């Protein structure tokens, strides 16, 4: 059997997908391939300029694509609410697919508009709020899916609920790992609550392995370390797979038949590259007590509760 590729995406005609961070990298590749498969795609991007460029590129690569741009800043809960309130869905208002892809990596300490540490605020709390606000539309669809993009880097650090914003001693790479563990704990708890409610919405996770995107470059540029920039550039050329290939686990989790709730999909070869396959994950991301505590804290911080999944 040949390896799964974008050509294997089932027909998505009549389905609506939201992809956060769709202006570049694996987010753009995922949005483009969903549009190629017939989906109506909403590119949810913080920068309207970069998002507009991505939309024009997508329409050029996929003539006739049904795609649009909507501003979304995951570091600002007002923007998240405005996006959810203004999002047009399918003809019946439903939403078939939400890909929580946007993120920041190992940046210097900063805070979001709501006072959250930026990495946990954007990578987890912003997506937690967005998913909760869009949940009524997702549950109104048939076979809807929520896919959160994590990273193998989650293995480096567990979430510390006693210092979620890492204000005692900020270490950018440790906090990045914590934010990616938070993504997996979120999917674990969301899948549990959906099952308890009898919902057919599938919550799954994916990671790109080592994919050549601008995420790594942005992290080392913020540190002003030219040598590290050169090392990452060489790694991207010699080791990393392309952004297109890095998007395949996300696309598989979003569209392939038989994807089970709480599945974690990544590249087959050592988790770094290759066709999509079930990926290993840290056992702490499957801890029911930890996922419930993170959920409750996320509700408290964002003010977003999930209708019907209390």
TrEMBL record:
It holds the Pfam family adh_short. Keywords: Oxidoreductase. It comes from the Bacteria. InterPro entries: KR_dom, NAD(P)-bd_dom_sf, SDR_fam. SUPFAM superfamilies: NAD(P)-binding Rossmann-fold domains (SSF51735). GO terms for molecular function: oxidoreductase activity. Residues 15-158 form the Ketoreductase domain. Belongs to the short-chain dehydrogenases/reductases (SDR) family. This is SDR family NAD(P)-dependent oxidoreductase.
């Amino acid at each position: 059997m040949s390896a799964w590729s974008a050509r294997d995406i089932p027909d998505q005609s009549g389905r609506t997908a939201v992809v956060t961070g769709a202006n570049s990298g694996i987010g753009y590749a995922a949005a483009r391939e969903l549009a190629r498969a017939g989906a109506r795609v909403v590119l949810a991007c913080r920068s309207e300029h970069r998002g507009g460029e991505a939309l024009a590129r997508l329409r050029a690569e996929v003539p006739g694509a049904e795609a649009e741009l909507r501003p979304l800043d995951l570091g600002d809960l007002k923007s998240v609410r405005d996006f959810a309130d203004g999002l047009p869905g399918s003809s019946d208002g439903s939403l078939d697919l939400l890909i929580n892809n946007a993120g920041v990596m190992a940046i210097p300490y900063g805070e979001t508009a709501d006072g959250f540490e930026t990495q946990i605020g954007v990578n987890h709390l912003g997506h937690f709020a967005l998913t909760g606000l869009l949940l009524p539309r997702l549950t109104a669809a048939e076979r809807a899916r929520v896919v959160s993009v994590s990273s193998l880097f989650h293995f480096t650090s567990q979430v510390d609920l006693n210092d979620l914003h890492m204000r005692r001693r900020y270490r950018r790479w440790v906090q990045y790992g914590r934010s990616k563990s938070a993504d997996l704990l979120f999917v674990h708890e969301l899948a549990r609550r959906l099952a308890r409610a009898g919902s057919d919405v599938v919550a799954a996770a994916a990671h790109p392995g080592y994919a050549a995107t601008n995420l790594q470059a942005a992290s080392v540029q913020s540190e002003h370390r030219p040598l590290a920039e050169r090392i990452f550039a060489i790694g991207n050329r010699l080791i990393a797979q392309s952004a297109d290939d890095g998007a395949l686990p996300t696309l598989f989790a979003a569209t392939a038949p038989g994807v089970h709730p709480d599945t974690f999909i990544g590249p087959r070869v050592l988790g770094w590259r290759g066709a999509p396959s079930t990926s290993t994950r840290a056992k702490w991301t499957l801890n029911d007590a930890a996922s419930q505590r993170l959920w409750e804290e996320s509700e408290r911080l964002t003010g977003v509760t999930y209708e019907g999944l209390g």
